[in-house]
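Q: I'm writing up a methods section and want to include an example of the input and output format. Could you take the sequence below and give the corresponding predicted C-alpha cells, formatted cleanly so I can copy it straight into the document?
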Amino acid sequence: MTESTLAERVGAASDPALPTHPDIATWRTATVDDVDAVHAVLAAADAVDHPTWTTPREEVAENFALSHVDPARDILLAFAPDGSPVAAGSAMRHPSLDEHVHVNLIGAVRPDWRGRGVGARLFGWQHARAEQQLAEVGGADDPAAHLPGEIHVYAGEKDAALERIGTTHGYRTERWFSTMHRDLREDVPELTAPAEIELVPYSADRAEDARLARNDAFRDHWGSLPSPSERWQQFVGGAFLRPDLCTLALDVSAGGGDRIVAFCLASVNEGDWEVLGPHAYIDLIGVVRSHRRRGLAPLIIARSLAAMRDAGLGMAVLDVDTESPTGANALYGGLGFTAYERDRVLVRRY
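A: Here is the clean output for your methods example:
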C-alpha cells in the first residue's frame, strides 16, 4: 500500500485520443463484431514473429466476452484504405485487486505494414488507456486505489522495435521467459507415487478445486495474480484443454479430503502443428505450498508426458520463468526439456 492513490501517481488520464498516421485510413475502437479483424492481424503477425504457435480465434473471442473488458474502450484497430485491418492492440486490466493493479498490453502490426511507425502510434494509445485504467481504480478512500500499479507487455527476444518503443514510455525488461521443447520419442521416466497420493486425469467436476489449487500454487510466482472464475472456466471449458493429457495429484491420506495438491494441465491446438508437428502445450504446472518438496512436480509431469506419447504426440512444449525461485528450470531440464526461444517482459511501475 502507498499513501498516494494510483490516480495521483499516474496523473491526468482522460480517454486517449485516437492516433493519427498518414497511411492509416481509419483508427477506431472495437465492437463485438471485430473478433475476426483482430484475429486476422494477430494471425498474420504470428506467422512471422513466432511460427511455432498461433493465436486461436477462440482466444480472441474469449477476450471480447470477458465481463471486465469493454471493447469500445480497451481494444483499438487500424485499417488500411482498402478496409483491411493492419494493426490491433488492447489494454486489459486484471480483475483482481489483491496485491497490485495489473494491466496487460497485447498488440501487433501486420508484417507488410511494419517499419512505418504504425506500431509506435498503437502502443502510445495502449499505454494511455492502461494508465487510465490504473487511475480509474477506486476512490481516495478505497484501499485498492493505494495498491502498486504495473503495466506488462511481452516481447520476443528479437523484437527490438517493441523493446525500443516500450523504453520510450518508461518500460524496462524485468523478466525473461523461456519456451522449452521435449521430444516424446525419448524415454519418459516411470515414477511411483507415494501411498498418500493418487494420480488422475482432469475432469470437469474438479474445475473449482483445480482453480483454487492453481491460485495457491502460483501465489508466490512473479507477476501472478489469482485466476478469477470467469477466466478459469474459459480455459478449462475451452476447445483446447485435453483432460486425458492432464494430471491431478490428489491427497488421499486420512484428512486429505482427496483435494488437488499438484497439477499439470495441457492443451492441444492442431493449428500449431505445421511447424513442430503433433504436440501438446503444458499450460500450467503447480504444487500447492503445503505439499512442496515431496517430489510431486516430476511425478505429475512424467505422467502427462507418458499420456502425450501414448496419444501419438511427438513433442511437449512449455514456458518457464528463467528466474523462477522454485527451481523449475532445473526440473524441466532434468525431465528432458531444452530451451528453444525467449520472451522478455517489459514493465512500467507506478
